[in-house]
Amino acid sequence: MEILFQCPNKVIYREGDYAVKQFDENYSTSDVLNEALNQARVEETGLPIPKLKEVRKNGEKWEIVMDYIPGKTMKQLIEEDPSREDELLNRLVDIQLSIHATTAPVTMNKLKDKMQRKISESKLNATTRYELHTRLESMPKHKKVCHGDLGLGDIIITPDDKYYIIDWAHATQGNASADAARTFLKFSLTYGEERANKYLDLFCQKSDTAKQYVQRWMPIVAASQSVKGHEDEMEFLMRWADVVEYE
Amino acid sequence: MNKENQTPEAVFVASTEALEMKLTQIRKAQAQYATYTQEQVDAIFKAAALAANHARIPLAKMAVEETGMGIVEDKVIKNNYAAEHIYNHYKNVKTCGVIEEDKEFGIVKLAEPIGVIAAVIPTTNPTSTAIFKCLLALKTRNGIIISPHPRAKESTITAAKIVMEAAEKAGAPKGLIGWVDVPSLELTNMVMKEADIILATGGPGMVKAAYSSGTPAIGVGAGNASAVIDKSADILNAVNSIILSKTFDNGMICATEQTIIAHKDVYDAVKAEMIRRGCYFLNDEEKNKIRKTMLINGALNAKIVGQRPVTIAKLAGFDIPDDVKVIVGEVESTSVDEAFAHEKLTTILAMYKAENFEDAMDKAEQLLNNAGGLGHTASLWIDNVHEREKLLTFADRMKTCRILVNTPSSLGGIGDLYNFKFAPSLTLGCGSWGGNSVSENVGVKHLLNIKTVAERRENMLWFRTPQKVYFKKGCLPVALDELKSVLGKKRVFLVTDSFLYKNGFTKVITDKLTEMGITYTVFSDVEPDPTLLSAQKGAEAMRSFEPDCIIALGGGSAMDAGKIMWVLYEHPEADFLDMAMRFIDIRKRVYTFPKMGEKAYFIAIPTSSGTGSEVTPFAVITDQNTGTKYPLADYELLPNMAIVDTDLMMSGPKGLTAASGYDAMVHALEAYASVMATDYTDGLAIRAMQLIFKYLPTAYEDGANVQAREKMASAATMAGMAFANAFLGVCHSMAHKLGAYHHLPHGVANALLLTIVMRFNAADKPRKMGVFSQYQYPHAFERYVECAEACGATGKDDQEVFENFLKKLEDLRDAVGIKKTIQEYGIDEQKFLDSLDQMSEDAFDDQCTGANPRYPLISEIRDMYLEAYYGEKK
C-alpha cells in the first residue's frame, strides 16, 4: 500500500487510479459524510478538485475514494526548492481568489454558523466569547466558496503544471476575508510570522482588500482553531482571541 | 408556582423565556408609570439620583474589582457625576404631558414616553453608565432593560438595582427597571429586538448590532481624540490638563486624548513639561514592544485597557518606575499600521511633531480617517483670543461632533464640567461620520416622543395701496404741484406711447413741469404689449438722464413699461426669470424683490378705465425673442402715487372703453370670489361692480358723458385696489393665455370667459377646492349671489338670482358690443384646437390660478376654453 499522506487519525493511500482517504474508527460518521458531501458540492461548482468516486466502509473504518492526482503539493515543491517560495505563494493566492470568485451552492454550510458554534464550544471565558460573538455578528455575510483550511499542502501541482485543490473537510460558504484570516493563522502556526505576513500582504494586494478587514476576523478564527485544542498552540491562540473592540 | 405571578425580583434572566417574562413585567410597569404626573416623576428622579450618589464609592470599588480596569477614586467621580449632574441638568426640564404651549400660534407640545429602552452598557464605565441610563429612563417615564457586559455584569446590575429600589421606594411601579442576569449575545439581541428604542454604548460591533436589530437605535461610536497644541498655546495648562484627562480612570473615557500633535516650535517645551510631570518617553526598542502588546492583529489587547503604565510596561516586557503617569511614544506615521495611531483606552499617548498648524490639522485629520474616531472628539490648545481664525479653521476641518478648546477632553466631552451649555452625558453621539443617528450628547430629549398639536390658524392679511391716490376731473396739475412743493423733485422722466404724445396728452404735464422749473425728458416709444427690449431702451435713457421721478402716462402697457424701466433703472442686475417665478404665497416666495424707490419716485397716470395698474403691484413684460410673458408681482412695484384724472379719458374710443371697462368688471368679480378676499377688498369690489353696471353702457355709447367717464374711472381704480390685495382667478389665467396665443384684446378675452368660469367656480362639489387657510369650504356660489344682490339681480331663490346675474353680465357684454364666442372673433378653429392643450396647461400654471376658489384641473380648463370657443359645452 502506497501511503500518500498520514496524520494522527487519518491516512491517504493510493489504490490504482484512486486515492483513498481512510479515517480512524473513532471518527464520527457524520463528519466523514459531511466531508464527502462538501467535496461533492464543490465538485459541482467546476473548481479543479479530485472527483469523488465512492464512500465506503473498510472494516470499522470509513473511506472516501477519489481520483488520484499525480504530482506534488506546493509545500513539497517549496521544501525541494526554497527559491520558489514567492512564485508559489503568488500562485496560492491566485488560486484562493479563484475559489472565492465561485458562488457556493445554496446548500453548503454557512461560515458564520460554523464560527458561532466554534466560539460557543471554545474554552475561552464568557467575556471573551461574548466579545467574539458580537464581533462575528457585525461581520458581513457573503456567499463565496471558502476552503476553510487552505495551505500550501492543499494544492497539488501536476507534472503538466495543472493544479488541484484537496481536503474540503472545512469548506463553507461565507466571507473571503475570514478564509484569508484562516490561512494567515495556519501560516503563522506552521511557518511563522514572516511567511504569514508575506501571504497576507499578497492576498490584500491582489484582492484589493484592506488589511484591517481581514484582521477583524483573526480573533474569530483563532477562537475556532482553539476548539481543536492543540496544547502547544493555546497560548498563541488565546493572545489572538483576547482583544476588545474600541468603545 | 405560576410564572405569571412571579414578582419582578424573582425572575432571574438567563434564558429567552425568562427574558420574555421580564420584558412583560417591565411593559406592565411602564404602562402604569406612563400615567404619572411631572411631580411624581420628578420626586422619583430625585430619590433615584440621591441613592445612586450615596452608593458612589461601593459601586466604584465593585467596578474596579470586577473588571480589573480603571481607578476607584476616578470611578467615584464618574458615579457622582452621573447622579448629580444629570439630576441637576434635568431637574426642571418638563418631560410629562404638556411641555410647551404657544397660544398665539395654536401650538401645544406633549411629551410621551417611548416605552421600553434597551440599554447596552460597556465595561469601561459600567456603573456610571447604568446610573445615567436608568435616571434618563425614570425622568422620561420609560421602562428600561439593561444588557450588561459579562466582564462587568455584577457591578452594572448592582448599580441598576440601587436606582431601581430607590425609585420604587419613592413610588415608581415595581419592575420598571430590569436586566439580563447572565448576558449572552442571544439575549442581548433579543433585548434589542423587543425594546422600543436602543441606547447602545459600546464597540462598533455592538452599535452595528443595535442598528441592524430593526428597532430605532441611538448608538455611539469609537473615539480617537487628537490634542493639537498650537505654538500660541499655554503649554503649562495644556500639558497638565492632558495628563489629568489621560490618567482619569486610566484613560477609559472615549473622549480621552489618544494623541498629542505639537507644533515644532513648542514641541520640546511640551515634552519637557510632560517629563517633569511624570510622563515616560519610550525608546525605539520599547516602542516596538508596546506596539506588539497594544495591538494584536490590529485589535486592542484586552489586557492593557484601563491599566497603569507600570502594568503595561511589564506586559510588554520591560520595567518603568511605578509612579509613571503616562507612557508616550513619539511617532511619525499616521497610517493604520502604526499601532500608536489607534484608540488605546489606556495610559498610552502617541506624540507627533507638526511642521506648522496646517500640518497639525492634516495629521489630526489623517488619524481620524486612518485609525478611527470619526465623528467623536477633537481637541485644540491655542490662544483662543488672538488666534480665533485658526480655531475656526480647525473646527471647520475636523469631522468630529465635539471640538474642545483648551479643555481636558475626557472631562470636557461629557459636558457640564469644563463647559456649561454642553448637555452632561455618558453617551456621546458621533453623527453619520461615526455611523450614528445623533451627533450630540444624548439626553432626555432623545428618549421622548414629542407630539405637536397644531390648531388651525389663519394667515395675517393685508391691504396695500399707493401712498397717495389723487382723483377728480382736472386734478392732474394740482396733484403734480407736489413734485416741487412737497417732494422737491428736480428731474422727471415721462414714459408714454407715441399716440398719446403726438396727440398732446403729455402737454398738461410738461407745461406744469416747465412752470415749476423741473427738468424733464419724454420717452414715447412704448408699444402695446411692451417688450423687454423697449423697456431696456427706456432704462438706458433713464440711466443717462438720471431722473428722481418717473411718470408713466397711458393705459396698462405704458404703466407696466414704466414699472419695468423703473426696476431696470434701479436694479440693472435684476433677473426677470427669478422675478416672474410662480409662488404660492407672495410673502414666502424664494426670490426677494429688490428694494424700489431709492433712485426715483414713481407716479402712474391712467388714460383709460380698466387695468388698475396705477394701484397694483403687477406688471407684465414680453420677451421679444421668445414671446414669453413675464408677469411680475411684488408690492415693491406699487406706484408711489396714482393720479386719476377723467380729462385724460374723455376721448377714449368705444372699443377700448368697452374692453377695458369689462376687464375692470372681471377684476372686481374675481377679487370678490378669490380665496384671499377680505372685507377690505369686498367693499371696493362691490362698489366697482355697481358703478360699472350703471355707467359702462353710457360711457360706451356717449364718450363725452363726464359723469359716466368719471364713475368708470373710479370703478377701475377701486377694482384695481381690490385685486391688488385679493388677487384674481382662473378667468384671468385663461384670458392671459388666450391673449398670448390668439391675440384677443385682454378685456375681450376676459369677457368671453367670465360667465363660464363663474359657473365652474359656483359648483357646490368641485373636484378640488382652493387651498388657503381662510378658505374653509367651497362658497364661490354664495359669494356670487352676494354680488348679484348688490347689483340688483333678483329671483325666487339663490339659484335663480345667480342665473339672472350671469344673464345681466352677458347683457352688459352685449350692450358694449362684445361678441359672444371666441369663434366669432375669427380665430381659426384648427389653429385654436392645435394650441388648446398647451394653452390649457399654461393657463393652469398662471400666477392667477392660485387665488381661484376652485382649484382647476388642466382638463377642466380645456373644457372651458372649448365652451368659450363654440358658445356651448363640447
Overview of the structural elements:
The complex is a heterodimer of chains A (247) and B (874). With 247 residues, chain A is α+β, with helices and mostly antiparallel strands. Chain A has ten helices and eleven strands. In chain A, a hairpin with a 2-residue loop joins strand 4 and strand 5. The longest helix of chain A is centred in the N-terminal third of the chain and has 16 residues, at 29-44. Chain A is globular. Chain B is an alpha/beta fold. Chain B folds into four domains: 3-219, Aldehyde Dehydrogenase, Chain A, domain 1, CATH 3.40.605.10; 225-407, Aldehyde Dehydrogenase, Chain A, domain 2 (3-Layer(aba) Sandwich), CATH 3.40.309.10; 466-649, Rossmann fold (3-Layer(aba) Sandwich), CATH 3.40.50.1970; 654-874, Dehydroquinate synthase-like - alpha domain (Dehydroquinate synthase-like, alpha domain). Chain B has 30 helices and 25 strands. Chain B has a seven-stranded parallel beta sheet, with helices on both faces. In chain B, strands 18-25-22-21-19-20 form a six-stranded parallel beta sheet, sandwiched between helices. In chain B, helix 11 (284-294) crosses helix 12 (309-316) and helix 16 (476-485) packs parallel to helix 18. At the A-B interface, helix 5, helix 8 and strand 11 of A face helix 7, helix 8 and strand 12 of B.
